[in-house]
């Protein structure tokens, strides 16, 4: 009876998580589609060069936002792939993330309609807020909610920090480098640091897991 009850609970948690992921994917897909829908060609243009000249700022803003939403979708997918269930608190935290993602088409339009430092600042704000909200989702799932199963503490903390800081920082550096070519240098350094840090923490997690298995085998013997 107890085994059957536990199985029913596990199946319900799986269905809950599955529906949450499906709903999230739909919001990401709609947001990324609205980016293109909001792009309208100029009323008067003469030749391909003039067309792209008039639409250049819109296409740049679209490309940046497409990359931002794509990166956040990948991050969201990776986080939720590590979860073994969901609950009401995770639903609310995830809705906050999705609410911020849904604002990106609006802030993208602001970015291309008013190509100014103020518009860029307003744009980067929600992008950074999504990262913070996503890190709260991961932090709750990995620590408070215990929804992520066995996770190496160091790797979990690195994922928390990277999720919170990386997207807003990268987006800001990309926009900065569009007007200042030397901005590509800190952008490249930031990418290298996050990649190297991720690999280092994964190696540490793998070593820690191997040590745990050895200790368990020794204890069993």
UniProtKB/TrEMBL annotation:
Cellular location(s): Membrane
Superkingdom classification of source: Bacteria
Catalytic activity reported: K(+)(in) = K(+)(out)
An annotated GO cellular component: membrane
Gene Ontology MF annotations: potassium channel activity; proton channel activity
Listed transmembrane segments: 20-39, 59-76, 88-108, 120-144, 156-175, 181-201
InterPro entries, per database record: TMEM175-like
Protein name as catalogued: DUF1211 domain-containing protein
Naturally occurring in which organism (per UniProt): Caulobacter endophyticus
């Amino acid at each position: 009876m107890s085994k059957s009850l536990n199985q029913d609970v596990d199946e319900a948690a799986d269905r809950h998580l599955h529906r949450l992921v499906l709903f999230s994917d739909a919001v990401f897909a709609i947001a990324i589609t609205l980016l293109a829908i909001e792009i309208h060609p100029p009323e008067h243009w003469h030749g391909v060069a003039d067309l792209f000249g008039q639409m250049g700022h819109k296409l740049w803003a679209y490309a940046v936002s497409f990359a931002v939403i794509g990166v956040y979708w990948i991050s969201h997918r990776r986080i939720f792939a590590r979860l073994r269930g969901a609950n009401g608190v995770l639903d609310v935290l995830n809705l906050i993330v999705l609410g911020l993602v849904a604002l990106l088409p609006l802030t993208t339009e602001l970015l291309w309609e008013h190509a100014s430092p103020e518009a860029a600042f307003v744009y980067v704000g929600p992008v950074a807020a999504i990262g913070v909200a996503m890190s709260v989702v991961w932090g709750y799932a990995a620590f408070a909610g215990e929804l992520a199963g066995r996770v190496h503490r160091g790797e979990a903390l690195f994922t928390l920090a990277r999720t919170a800081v990386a997207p807003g920082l990268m987006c800001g550096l990309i926009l900065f480098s569009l007007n200042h070519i030397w901005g590509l240098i800190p952008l490249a350094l930031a990418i290298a640091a996050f990649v190297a840090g991720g690999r280092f923490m994964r190696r540490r997690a793998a070593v820690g897991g191997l040590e745990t298995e050895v200790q368990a085998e020794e204890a069993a013997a």
